Amino acid sequence: MAVTEFSGDPRAVQGCRRLSILGATGSIGTSTADLVRRNPEAFDVAVLTANRNAADLATLARELRPELAIVADPEAYTELQELLAGTGIEVAAGPQALVEAAREPVDMTIAGIVGAAGLDSALAAIQQGTVVALANKECLVCAGDLVLEACHAAGTTLLPLDSEHNAIFQVFETENAADVEKLVLTASGGPFRTWTRPQMATATPDQAVAHPNWDMGRKISVDSATMMNKGLELIEAAYLFPVASENIDVLVHPQSVVHSMVAYTDGSMLAQLGPPDMRVPIAHALAWPARMKTPVERLDLAAIGTLDFEAPDDERFPAIALARAALDSGNGSTAVLNAANEVAVQSFLDNLIGFLDITKFVEKTLELVQASPIRTLDDFRALDTETRVVTESLVKSGS
Ligand code: NAD
Ligand code: MG
Q: Do residue 25 and residue 108 come from a single domain?
């Protein structure tokens, strides 16, 4: 498995940084915009993109003054154009316009689109050869080898924005990689951490997206509730760090204060702590390799008093084991896992299936689809399309 080298040229991110924010209207995008807004002299926004929320995108664009504002959905074009008339901001729409905008030369791209829908634009950003701060973990789950190959080919530095991977990045001693015994990914356990399976069977979308610690988009919130998020993160970690999958552990930590840990052969365990606020890892990436000020609430450990840890319960939350098995069986299986999960989560959010059906249908899809290895983008697209059809038919038949 290829391994990302965090060895990009730091000169590329010194001075005023030119940024593209892909997925600017989402949770990651708006947290990034908040930091940019507070540091106007440090950042110059070149590109902002959204799926179809023209109103929010226009508001952000009027404030952050990018050169380009893009909506992926062509139906949102006219509205965006009207909202930005007279601003001098160029407006475009459609998936191809999104990819072209992602190619705009910048110092750093924030890849904050959700799901495999963000893969093409993330690859386009990578091909520029600067720095890509990746929140969109699904890119690595569905096509990690292609993403890393593109990084190597272009000399691009990939910085992890996901809080756990950013935490590991902060305490991972690259020069002592051979002495890393384990990565420990912490997990909040989500809103159903203490629920029984029969209780979870009745869970509604509103209950599933009500995360106890983090304020996130709906898809990742459901992934946190099934704990598939930790499964996706296990795969993400295996791509980002030179550590074998059996040496990547998951540990439930309900307070979300310790964001992850690295254990070394001398018995040391290094952790990164912080409040559960994505502006911390985003700021770490935005300022990397330096640091920047953020307005986040500081940790008051005396007030917190106790930090709890427990082993994950694989019986109530089978998604992590499913993801681990997919990781061990190859990149076709992780692509199938991702596509099936995206379809199942959306079907749950649309009230078409129950909460427990999400992981059940992912598991069934993995049994039904022949997960051939992914060597090219076409391999990925064919497998992704086939998988979605299979999961959609499971959703329709209800079993
Ligand atoms: P979100 O739903 O809040 O925002 C998603 C963004 O992507 C929006 O701007 C939306 O317009 C855009 N988008 C959605 N579908 C699109 C499409 N088909 N084409 C183009 N643009 C599209 O999601 P989020 O919570 O910000 O998560 C974004 C990514 O970051 C996900 O991969 C998630 O797993 C990861 N992540 C999020 C958090 C968090 O705290 N929110 C933490 C860690 C990792
Ligand atoms: Mg995370």
A: yes
Q: CA-CA distance, 187 to 220, in Å (whole number)? A: 13
Task: Note the ligand closest to the C-alpha atom of 338.
Answer: 1
Query: Whose CA is closest to 6, among 288, 286, 259, 270?
Result: 288
Pair 185, 137 in one domain:
no
Q: What is the CATH number of the domain that holds 350?
A: 1.10.1740.10
Nearest CA to ligand 1 atom 16: 51
Residue where one domain finishes, among candidates 161, 193, 228? 161
Domain finish residue from 109, 144, 161: 161
- Packed helices 95-102 and 119-127: angle between N→C axes, nearest 10 degrees: 30
**pTM beyond 0.85, yes or no:** yes
Predicted pLDDT of residue 399: 81
Provide the 3-class DSSP secondary structure of residue 214. Answer: coil
| Helix residue spans in the chain (DSSP H) | 27-38, 54-64, 77-83, 95-102, 119-127, 138-154, 163-171, 197-201, 205-209, 218-226, 228-240, 279-287, 301-304, 319-329, 331-349, 355-368, 377-397
Residues 255, 356 within the same domain: no
In this prediction, residue 235 carries a pLDDT of: 98
Protein residue with its CA nearest to atom 23 in ligand 1:
217
pLDDT band at 101 (very low <50, low <70, confident <90, very high): very high
The answer to whether position 325 is within a domain reads no
| Total structural domains within the chain | 3
Residue 290, domain extent? 166-304
Residues 6+ positions from 203 with CB-CB distance below 8 Å: 192, 195, 225, 354, 355
Q: Is residue 6 part of a domain?
A: no
Q: Are 170 and 291 in the same domain?
A: yes
Residue 317 alpha carbon to ligand 2 centre in Å: 17
CA of 162 to the centre of ligand 2 (A): 5
pLDDT in tens, 241-287: 999 999 999 999 999 999 999 999 999 999 999 999 999 999 999 99
Cα–ligand 2 centroid distance for 393 (angstroms): 30
28 pLDDT band (50/70/90 cuts)?
very high
291 and 391 in a single domain? The answer is: no
Task: Measure the CA–CA gap between 28 and 33, rounded to whole angstroms.
Answer: 9
